[in-house]
Structure formats: structure tokens, C-alpha cells
Amino acid sequence: MSAAAKPAAAGETGVAARAADLAARAGLDLAYLALGGLTSVLAFCVWVTALSVTVSLLVFIVGLPVFLLSAIAFRWTAELDRRNAALVVGRPLRGRYRDHRGEGFFERLRSTAADHQTWKDLGWLIVHSVLGFGFAVAAVTAVAVTIGAFLMPAWYGTIDEGVEVGLWNVHSLGGALLATLASFPLAALTVLLLRGMAIAQAWIATALLDGDEGADPAPASAAAPAPRLRKPPRRPPSSETWLVVQLAVSGLIALMVTAIWAATGADYFWPAWVWLGLLVPLSLHFGIREALRIVPDHGGLAVQAVISLVVLGICIAVWALTGFGTFWPIWTILGLVTAFALHLLARLTWQRVFGEERERELTERVETLTKTRSGALEVQSAELRRIERDLHDGAQARLVALSMQLGRAEERLGDESEAAELLRAARSEASAAIAELRDLARGIAPPVLADRGLPAAVEALGRRSPVPVTIEARLERRPPAVIETAAYFVVAEALTNVAKHAPEAAATVRIEGGGEQLRVAVSDDGPGGADAASGTGLEGLRARVAALDGELTVRSPAGEGTTIEAVLPCGS
């Protein structure tokens, strides 16, 4: 790619990313407004019913508990919109209510009446029941008109009189194509309209429903700035988000056409056809998504089963809506079952012919990887032991000799010379270097482990441990070197944890096996309650044991001590 082409490609990628962000943002705005249309209907029912019942019964004693129930209903209904606001604001809103714990009936009645958030909830329900429904109708209508204009060449011919678009009557393919072209600027206006209505609704919701201290404060006047809204996400919304969008829009459209049917005489129930048209894509979306999630290994069969069930449901619904009669969907059932059976038979045949070969290839591959990993671990263990020997026999021995020579020189110079003081400091540094080098060599692979085996190395650990350690070892034979090293470090880390977290406890180390598997357990009688998921030491041990196909378990019930057990395979 040339230098001139790279900026162009980068620019195209940036434009595509911005377009994806814009589409994602518009989808979330539509979901927020459509869900707001559904909750606005609920809000209207709640506040009208609650106020009418409470006011009418307030003159009687029974009106007092009804007032408390109304406040709870306000809170629960407002909570739905607090959660929906996360689609635009970026986080769920939080209401700050008074704490009523420990209050009696009359105290709670008085504190509820003085709770500002309860009255703000009521104000939100009143405003939202009008504004939210209007925004939802405007949003769904704008999107429907845009989609209808874009797809007009596909459906304008179904209306004999033509399609009335304002003062323009579309009755030809040319006019329909012009409507498709006009749908692009209309889509831009629709996106701006959705954004503006979503911001306005979120601004009011934040002002009335949000009591979070970390949120932007509510505006003091109409000229105050709107709450800070999150930037469009850089990744497209998840499948759950699109399913919620589709469900909300479909529910609102179904509610609107039903209301239109009721307002125009409630004659033939034609909204059933609209419901069916909305239910088909919703069923396909949800069914295919769940089928691929439940049976990912048989996605083709699962998708075909979902599509077949949806087609069958459509046929049965059409048969029912057209007055029943002869059950013609039986032919559809026969065709769908035959197609599914042929698909299943072809899949089974393919697996029969090619499955065994594929399984054999995978088995051979696993065996090869197991052998190569075992060889790599053996080579790594041998290399670590060589490094330890080089440190012990080379650098460590030379430092010991150097320390002895420095000591002799110090004795010859006596205690009065400044050179003797420098030699004394040099010998001290050499002794410290020897100690650090010895610890380093022991951390790589202790010499006693290579020379005398695991039980002797663990006994050396027990003698150096600040807590009393009892060792029980019963080995059938000596395990492989890499297994011994892993078991040694399990014991070392476990005893370190005992000394750190339970210094007053006593520890017991049990080593068993050595034939097909080696079992190492370190237990203590400390307070227990250890978090097995915390600590990098245990995570490192898990990784070391897992690399050898072993298993590490930690049991630490409160008050019963802690047991760390590792089971390592030794081979046959």
C-alpha cells in the first residue's frame, strides 16, 4: 500500500467507526424513548389511581396507609425510568430517600410526607406520562416514516389510490424512487430528533430522579446546562440491547395500533395482523440467539428448527385468523419435518464418514502436544538444575574463597589500619552476596532435592520454618524430577503462608504415592478462612501444577485450619 493510500484507508476506517457510533447511539436513543413510552402509560395509571384513591380516602383513617402505599408505588414506577436512563446517561440514576428503618407507623407517615424525593417522583410521573408518551410516539413515527420512505418502491403498488406524502401523491416507480432518495436526509433529521428528545428526557429524569452525590447537580433554572451525557460507545450494542430495542418498539407499535382500532369503532380486529408481523422478526431474533447459545455445536440444525417453528406458527396463525376451515398447514408441517429430517440425515452421514478420521487426527495431535510439552518441561527442569549446579559450584565457591582471603588479609593488617576496615566491610558484603546467592540457588532447585529426593528436601524446609512442622512421607518410588520440583515448591509456598498468616499454628506435611500419581498435602491448625482466590503465590502454584496436568485444591473453613493439596501425575 502506498503512502497516499494509507491516510485514505485510515480516513475510511474513521468514517466507518463514526457511522457505527452514530447508528449505535441512535439505536440506544430509540430504545430509551420507546421504553419511556411504555413506562409513561404505567406512570399515568399509577399517579392518577394513587392520587384519586388517596385524596378520596384521606378524610378517613384508611387513607393514611393508602398514602404510604402510593409513595411506594411512586418509587417503584420511577425506578424503572432510573434504570432506563442508563441507555443515555451511562449509569442508572439513584434516588436518595429517607431511611425509615426503626420508625413506627406515624413516624414513617410524617417522614414520608417530608421526603423530597417522593414528591419529585410524583412530579416525574406526571411530567413523564405526557412528555414520555409524546416523545415515544414521535420517535416511532419518525423511524417508521423513514423506513417506509426507503422501502416505498417495494410496497407503493399495494395501494390503488397511491401513497399520500404531504401534498405529494406517489403512484409511480419514479416517485417511489424519489421517496427513497428523500429518505436519506429524512434519516439524518430522524437521528437528530431522537438525540434531542433523548437528551431532553434524560435531563428532566436526572433533575427529578437522581439523588446520587456523584452525579451532576440538578439545574437551578431553565438556563442551566444539561447533565453530562456519555459519548457514543466505540463498539456496537450487544445482542441483548438490540433485542430490547426491538421488543420496546414492537410493543409500542402494537399498543398504538390497538388504540387506533379501539378509537375507530372496534370492529374487525385488524391489529392481529400487525401483531403477527411484529412477532415474526422478534421470534426469529430471540429464537436464533437462544438456539446458538444453547446448542452452539449444532448451530445449523438449531437455526433450521427455530425457522421451521416460526414458519409453522405463521401458518397456523394465518389459518386461525382467516376463519379456520380446512387445516392446510398440515402440508407445511410435512415439508418442514421432511427438510429437517434430510438435514439431520446428511449431518449424521457426514459425521459417520469424516468424523472418525477427524477424531483420530485430534487424538494424535493431543498425544503429540502432550509428548512435546512433557519434553519441554523435562528440558526446563534439567536446565534449571544445571544453572543451580553452576551457581553452587562456580560463583558461590569463588565468593566463599574470596571471603576467606579477605579474612586472612584483615588478620595480617590488624585492627588499627584503615585498610583493615575496608577489608572488613568487603568481607561483610561478600558474606551477604553468598547468602543471597545461596537463597537464589535454593529457589531455583535446592541441592538436597536433586541429591536426596523430595522427603529430605521437605525435612530441610521444616527445619528452617519458624512454625513447628510434622512430616509424613510414604513414597513407592522416586517421582520424575519435574514432579519433585513442583511438589517441593507447593510445600515451600504453603509453609510460607502458614508462617505469615498463622504464626501460632503447627503444620503437617503428608507426601504419598509416587507410582501413578504424587499427592502432597500441607495442613495447619490455624484460624482458617483463607481466600483461595487471593494471593499471587497460590495462583503461581496453580499454574505450575496445571502445567503438569495436576490439580491444586485449597480448603480453609473458618475455625478449622487450612489444607493445601496438590495431586500430580507421575506417569505409569
Explain what you see:
The protein is an alpha+beta fold and 572 residues long. It has four domains: 16-227, no CATH class; 237-301 and 309-327; 330-445, no CATH class; 452-569, Heat Shock Protein 90 (2-Layer Sandwich), CATH 3.30.565.10. The protein contains 16 helices and seven strands. It has helices at residues 5-57, 63-84, 86-89, 105-113, 116-150, 152-155, 173-209, 239-263, 271-294, 299-321, 329-413, 418-444, 447-452, 454-464, 481-501, 536-546, and strands spanning 163-165, 168-170, 469-475, 507-513, 517-524, 551-555, 562-569. Strands 3-4-5-7-6 form a five-stranded mixed β-sheet. Strands 1-2 form a two-stranded antiparallel sheet. α11 (329-413) packs antiparallel against α12 (418-444). It is elongated, with a radius of gyration of 38 Å. It starts with a helix and ends with a strand. 22% of the residues are buried.
Properties at a glance:
16 helices; 69% helix; five-stranded mixed β-sheet; 4 domains; 572 residues; single chain; two-stranded antiparallel ribbon; alpha+beta
Structural class, from secondary structure content?
alpha+beta
Which residues form runs of ≥5 with pLDDT under 50? 213-237
Whole-number count of domains: 4
The overall strand count is: 7
Write out the strand line-up for the largest beta sheet, numbering strands in chain order.
Answer: 3-4-5-7-6
Number of helical regions = 16
Radius of gyration, whole Å: 38 Å
Residue fraction in strands: 5-15%
User: What oligomeric state best describes the polypeptide chains here?
Assistant: single chain
Q: End-to-end span in angstroms?
A: 57 Å
Biggest beta sheet attributes: 5 strands, mixed
Pattern of helices and strands:
HHHHHHEEHHHHHHHHEHEEHEE
Tell me, rounded to a whole number, the average pLDDT.
76
Shape: elongated
Helix content: 55-70%
